[in-house]
Amino acid sequence: MSALLTVEDLRIAFPNRDGDPVEAVRGVSFSLGRERLGIVGESGSGKSQTGRAILGLTPPQAIVTARTLAFDGIDLLKAAPAERRALRGARIGMVLQDPKYSLNPVMTVGDQIVEALQAHENVGDREARERALAMLAAVQIDRPARVFGLYPHEVSGGMGQRVMIAMMLIADPDLLIADEPTSALDVTVQLQVLSILDRLVGERGMGLIFISHDLRLVSSFCDRVLVIYAGRVVEEIAAADLGAAQHPYTRGLLACLPRLGEHRHPLPVLSRDPEWAR
Amino acid sequence: MPFLNALVRFLGAVVLTYLGLLAVTFFIGRVVPIDPVLAIVGDRAPEHVIARVREELGLNLPLWKQFLIYLGKVLQGDFGTSVLSSNPVMQDIRRVFPATLELATLGTIIGAGIGIPLGVWAAVRRGGVADQMVRVMALIGYSVPIFWLGLMALVVFYARLGWVGGPGRIDVVYEYTLTPWSGIMLLDTALAGEWEAFGNAFSHLILPASLLGYFSMAYISRMTRSFMLNELAQEYVVTARAKGLSEARIIWRHALRNAAVPLVTVVALSYAGLLEGSVLTETVFAWPGLGLYITNSLQNADMNAVLGGTIVVGSVFIGLNLLSDLLYRTLDPRTRTR
Amino acid sequence: MTELARNDQTWRAWLLSDRPQSRRQASLGRLYSGWRTFSRNRLAMVGLAIILALIVVAVFANALAPYSPYEGDLARTRLLPPSAAHWLGTDDQGRDILSRIIHGSRITLFVVVLVAILAAPIGLLVGTVAGYAGGWVDSALMRVTDIFLAFPRLILALAFVAALGPGIENAVIAIAITSWPPYARIARAETLTVRRADYIAAVELMGASSWRIVFRHIMPLCLASVIVRVTLDMAGIILTAAGLGFLGLGAQPPMPEWGALISNGRLYVLDQWWVAAAPGAAIFIVSLAFNLLGDGLRDALDPKAGS
Ligand SMILES: Nc1ncnc2c1ncn2[C@@H]1O[C@H](COP(=O)(O)OP(=O)(O)OP(=O)(O)O)[C@@H](O)[C@H]1O
Ligand SMILES: [Mg+2]
């Protein structure tokens, strides 16, 4: 399996108040084929910034360096801005956390989907609309024609996230980065959205980077798991082998997962070792 | 339904504000040290004449009745008679208002036309040239006396450089060949096909309009900048980038379209501000509009005219507030009906 | 020397202590760190310097002005351009313009101070009472405030002056009447944020009267924001006063009010531009100074609102 994405020694630094760079991501490496990779870590560990660096969407003040950052043979760090933009949406898509904020509130969802398609393919309005409707149907929206004309505040969170998925998949990318795509949703809706994502990624043979806090969710959904702590990969392991994880942080995370029929008092607290961040 | 509710509540506020405006003008009219009775009969009139006139004017009625009568008159557009012109005030205002409207409208077009793109540019290139320009322009705009800037502009562009026409709306030569149709000079001359007169009117209009435009631009560009900075930091902008849209489309179609919602109010406010600013500008440029009418009346203690003018400007203010609220609601789908 | 320097160090430490021992130490410390932010803002310091200079000029006007502001030599010094003898030239009465501007600074200062001490307390009172009382008192007071806010301020001031008669005192009253509403809004917003605070509840439990709470405990908290807003408004107040003077409704001749000076110079502006130019520049510089100062104060006292 040839690598779709290769990341070697990715570092992302932000200037602090005095202008000195402080690294938030410190040497992350992994590679990805047409498979599902989960990235887990606590808040602020650098998951989102890693995902955004692949798309070239880190904040303007961020300094991104890497030994290799290549997508399908294209050196992303050397690519011209226009070239990177051509990749975004067309070959790499990204689903953000909360549809309430990540959809443009003054544009109908239909227009936002059509726009994503027309940015990359030369299709007429009629055809674009039809393909958008088909895409809405593919994310299991019952009455696509009606939803097409709605504004984001008029759709529910679960539907909003399905719209978001439709928007990111309409140009048929090879890789999708989903940054906590279900964290803002109700538990019941979460599963529905995940199963849609699961099916579409499978059908289309795409690569997926699934970013989450939730180790159990990731382990059931992904083929492989990357555990990040303080901007560094502390463990990379096949999801099936998670039980055999070596790193104390991963083991700590696993220990925190509640199991049915188990009474735990007091609740276990993750203990951290400053050594891990070294 | 919530839309209707909000609208009703807003209209209620508008009516209340309007009543407040009339109460204030009524109050000012009563406080005037000039006794309206003495103004009519002179101060040597015998006691019973004074009493009769007093009754005729309704001044012996209780205050609230007087206010109701006043209200009724004003709502019918009856502001009394101007001492200065001996015309009904409403008739005078109808004659002078188009001149002010023309000036303030062109000023707003200039202000918004330059201010909005400049503000967008300042936000996109934060800390860059445009950003500094917007900052300095706003600072000067908030600090410089408009009438003084107008005078200095007249000295430079009219007296020294001769680039523009001087005070007034049009040279006297053209004044009498023209049939005032709408009262808007540019429109009247263009409709009559008098292109020479059109050019002349434009050369008179452009300096005061640019001056007003500058103040409106200073305000609008500053506000546009801050709204745009706010929008560009939103998540939907990240989404738009992730879709691979061009920067131009993200800025103008996505961010500005969202910023337009509060901008409408800003433009309306600045339009209202120009109508007010015209009082000083029109004096400097001898522009025969509402502002000049009010100041002339003031200097001649023509109270009916002053209060009539105040009510008209106040009504336009309130009307613009109403309009901007309605526009706001149509621009933002979140406040629209479902 | 070293003793003094060390003393300096301990003073600063005392002021910046994150565990103040007394209320006074805490408030002095807050003032000090506010001053540190403020004094780092160079433009704000320029503004402050200009305003201090204005005060000095106003106080020592008699000593500083080279000529009398009221008497000129009609025969020999009428409408002279700027020269070594008359730095800013002379006006149509042969009066030295610089001297008139120097004396006019007193009027400007008078207007600014008087409007501030008239309008700020009205706004503060209306806002805190509305915010603390809530209910219908709040609704009624805010309705009135909104009505005043929706008015064209300059026109309203004009109408008031028309009714009261022209003159600098009436101009001040008219400006004050039209400028309190924003202060009321701000004071109310601040009151709402502290009204439910525990220490207000504690004072209430101790049986303090509502008036006492409003005056002693709430008003002082709202003061900072209102002061910032008043400073930012100063430029507008100066411009309005000058506008009234320009229209002949403010200070009456021969008072050397800056707006009136421009109005006088207007008659000769096409040939003797300096008569109108200099007082306008004075207005501009002082307004600019207040704007710079206000921006600096806002950033120092209220870091959240920084632009
Ligand atoms: N705009 C920024 N300026 C400065 N530092 C930033 C910025 N954005 C992110 N960081 C730094 O990068 C670190 C990683 O942020 P990131 O958003 O990747 O975390 P995360 O793992 O996605 O957390 P979460 O689970 O909360 O989303 C943060 O701890 C923060 O210090
Ligand atoms: Mg994140």
CATH topology of the largest domain in chain B: MetI-like fold
Low-confidence stretches of chain B: none
Overall shape of chain C: it is flat
Supply the number of helical segments of chain C: 13
Count of distinct strands of chain C: 0
Which two chains touch over the largest interface?
A: B-C, 51 and 47 residues
Helical residue percent of chain B? over 70%
Number of domains of chain B: 2
Low-confidence stretches of chain C: none
Beta-strand segment tally of chain B: 0
Q: Note the run of SSEs of chain B as H and E.
A: HHHHHHHHHHHHHH
Q: How is the main sheet of chain C built?
A: none
> Percentage of helical residues of chain C?
over 70%
Most strands sheet of chain B: none
CATH topology of chain C: MetI-like fold
Query: Quick check: average pLDDT of chain C?
Result: 85
Return the structural class of chain C: mainly alpha
Distance between the termini of chain B: 9 Å
| CATH class bucket of chain C | Mainly Alpha
Q: What is the number of helices of chain B? A: 14
| CATH C-level name of the largest domain in chain B | Mainly Alpha
Word description of this protein:
The complex is a heterotrimer of chains A (278), B (338) and C (307). In chain A, the strands form 2 sheets. Chain A has a 6-stranded mixed beta sheet with strand order 7-8-9-3-10-11, sandwiched between helices. In chain A, strands 1, 2, 4, 5 and 6 form a 5-stranded antiparallel beta sheet that branches. Chain A has helices spanning 47-55, 81-87, 99-102, 109-118, 125-138, 144-148, 157-169, 187-204, 215-221, 248-256, and strands at residues 5-15, 21-32, 36-40, 63-65, 68-71, 74-75, 92-95, 175-179, 207-212, 224-229, 232-238. The two termini of chain A are 33 Å apart. Helix content of chain A is 35%, strand content 23%. Chain B has 2 domains: 2-75, no CATH class; 95-337, Orthogonal Bundle (MetI-like fold). Chain B has helices spanning 2-31, 36-41, 47-56, 63-75, 89-124, 129-143, 146-160, 172-175, 185-191, 195-232, 235-242, 247-284, 290-299, 303-331. In chain B, helix 5 runs antiparallel to helix 6 (129-143), helix 12 (247-284) packs parallel to helix 13 (290-299) and helix 12 (247-284) packs antiparallel against helix 14 (303-331). Helix content of chain B is 77%, strand content 0%. Chain B is mainly alpha-helical and 338 residues long. In chain B, 43% of the residues are buried. Chain C has one domain (47-60, 85-306): MetI-like fold, CATH 1.10.3720. Helix content of chain C is 74%, strand content 0%. Chain C has 13 helices and no strands. Chain C has helices at 2-16, 23-40, 42-59, 61-64, 97-133, 135-149, 153-164, 168-179, 181-195, 198-205, 210-246, 258-266, 274-301. Chain C is flat, with a radius of gyration of 23 Å. The chains are: A alpha/beta (278), B mainly alpha (338), C mainly alpha (307). The interface between B and C is large, with 51 and 47 residues.
